[in-house]
């Protein structure tokens, strides 16, 4: 799924792209583990910012950076360069 950048980016479309990423420690996806939810994606079309807030499965997850990189890599392959991606854990 590649997003049409002439149209507005829908947070639910972004969630649909991200929810199937496999967790690095568990045999489940980020969506199944509620690491990412549909409410954790915010889009500001005026500034081109996309904010992804994810919640690791444990408070001091040592793989949170890997999860963030997986999210960034997946979105980089689906979004145009005019969007700025920001993440927070």
UniProtKB/TrEMBL annotation:
Residues 13-76 form the MIP18 family-like domain. Pfam families: FeS_assembly_P. GO terms for biological process: protein maturation. Belongs to the MIP18 family. PANTHER family: CYTOSOLIC IRON-SULFUR ASSEMBLY COMPONENT 2B-RELATED, PROTEIN AE7-LIKE 1. This is MIP18 family-like domain-containing protein.
């Amino acid at each position: 799924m590649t997003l049409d950048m002439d149209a507005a980016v829908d947070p639910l479309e972004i969630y649909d792209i991200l929810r199937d990423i496999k967790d690095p420690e568990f045999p489940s996806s980020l969506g199944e583990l509620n690491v990412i939810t549909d409410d954790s994606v915010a889009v500001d079309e005026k500034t081109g910012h996309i904010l992804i807030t994810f919640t690791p499965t444990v408070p001091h997850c040592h793989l949170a950076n890997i999860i963030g990189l997986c999210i960034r890599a997946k979105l980089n392959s689906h979004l145009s360069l005019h969007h700025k991606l920001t993440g927070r854990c």
